[in-house]
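An instance follows:
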Amino acid sequence: MMDVCAPYRGYNRPFVGRNPAAAVEAARMIEVARTLMKSEPELTELVAEVEGVEVTMAEKGFGTRVELRADERSGIEVADLERYLDQLAEPQKKPFA
Protein backbone atom coordinates (compact mmCIF):
# COMPACT_ATOMS: atom_id res chain seq x y z
CA MET A 1 0.00 0.00 0.00
CA MET A 2 1.30 3.48 -0.93
CA ASP A 3 1.98 6.00 1.87
CA VAL A 4 0.12 9.16 0.74
CA CYS A 5 1.61 11.27 3.54
CA ALA A 6 5.22 10.52 2.60
CA PRO A 7 5.79 13.77 0.62
CA TYR A 8 4.71 15.83 3.68
CA ARG A 9 6.77 14.14 6.37
CA GLY A 10 8.95 16.62 8.21
CA TYR A 11 6.50 19.51 7.85
CA ASN A 12 5.38 20.95 11.18
CA ARG A 13 2.47 22.86 9.70
CA PRO A 14 -1.14 21.60 9.37
CA PHE A 15 -2.37 20.43 5.98
CA VAL A 16 -4.96 22.11 3.79
CA GLY A 17 -5.95 19.93 0.87
CA ARG A 18 -2.83 18.59 -0.83
CA ASN A 19 -0.43 21.33 0.29
CA PRO A 20 0.93 22.25 3.71
CA ALA A 21 -0.79 25.38 5.05
CA ALA A 22 1.25 28.56 5.08
CA ALA A 23 1.92 30.05 8.48
CA VAL A 24 -0.08 33.26 8.78
CA GLU A 25 0.48 35.63 11.65
CA ALA A 26 -2.87 36.98 12.80
CA ALA A 27 -3.07 40.56 14.00
CA ARG A 28 -3.61 40.82 17.73
CA MET A 29 -6.91 42.48 18.58
CA ILE A 30 -8.22 44.24 21.66
CA GLU A 31 -11.92 43.82 22.38
CA VAL A 32 -14.64 45.11 24.69
CA ALA A 33 -18.31 44.12 24.76
CA ARG A 34 -21.44 45.22 26.56
CA THR A 35 -25.22 44.95 26.21
CA LEU A 36 -26.72 48.41 25.70
CA MET A 37 -30.38 49.28 26.18
CA LYS A 38 -30.80 50.69 22.68
CA SER A 39 -32.10 49.26 19.44
CA GLU A 40 -29.73 48.05 16.74
CA PRO A 41 -30.91 50.69 14.19
CA GLU A 42 -30.34 53.46 16.75
CA LEU A 43 -26.82 52.20 17.49
CA THR A 44 -26.01 51.71 13.80
CA GLU A 45 -26.59 55.42 13.23
CA LEU A 46 -24.24 56.33 16.11
CA VAL A 47 -21.51 53.81 15.20
CA ALA A 48 -21.26 54.94 11.56
CA GLU A 49 -18.79 57.65 12.61
CA VAL A 50 -16.12 55.34 14.08
CA GLU A 51 -12.89 54.69 12.16
CA GLY A 52 -10.42 51.90 12.86
CA VAL A 53 -12.86 49.94 14.99
CA GLU A 54 -14.68 46.75 14.00
CA VAL A 55 -18.23 46.75 15.40
CA THR A 56 -20.46 43.70 15.83
CA MET A 57 -24.03 44.00 17.07
CA ALA A 58 -26.70 41.44 17.93
CA GLU A 59 -30.11 41.79 19.57
CA LYS A 60 -30.11 40.43 23.11
CA GLY A 61 -33.20 40.58 25.30
CA PHE A 62 -34.36 44.19 25.54
CA GLY A 63 -31.08 45.59 24.27
CA THR A 64 -28.28 45.09 21.79
CA ARG A 65 -24.98 43.32 22.45
CA VAL A 66 -22.21 45.55 21.07
CA GLU A 67 -18.65 44.29 20.56
CA LEU A 68 -15.87 46.67 19.60
CA ARG A 69 -12.54 45.37 18.29
CA ALA A 70 -9.40 47.17 17.16
CA ASP A 71 -5.94 46.12 16.04
CA GLU A 72 -3.37 46.54 18.82
CA ARG A 73 -1.13 48.45 16.41
CA SER A 74 -3.83 51.05 15.65
CA GLY A 75 -2.98 53.13 18.73
CA ILE A 76 -6.46 52.55 20.15
CA GLU A 77 -6.47 51.21 23.71
CA VAL A 78 -9.01 49.21 25.71
CA ALA A 79 -9.82 52.35 27.74
CA ASP A 80 -10.69 54.17 24.49
CA LEU A 81 -13.09 51.40 23.49
CA GLU A 82 -14.67 51.41 26.98
CA ARG A 83 -15.19 55.20 26.77
CA TYR A 84 -16.78 54.77 23.37
CA LEU A 85 -19.20 52.17 24.75
CA ASP A 86 -20.04 54.59 27.57
CA GLN A 87 -20.87 57.27 24.98
CA LEU A 88 -23.06 54.85 23.04
CA ALA A 89 -24.94 53.93 26.22
CA GLU A 90 -25.83 57.55 27.06
CA PRO A 91 -29.33 58.73 26.12
CA GLN A 92 -29.36 60.80 22.94
CA LYS A 93 -31.45 63.96 22.95
CA LYS A 94 -32.94 64.70 19.57
CA PRO A 95 -34.76 67.96 18.92
CA PHE A 96 -38.35 67.81 17.72
CA ALA A 97 -38.55 68.32 13.98
Residues 9 and 61 are 52 Å apart (CA to CA). The radius of gyration is 22 Å. The beta strands are 15-16, 19-20, 29-36, 54-60, 63-71. The chain has two helices and five strands.
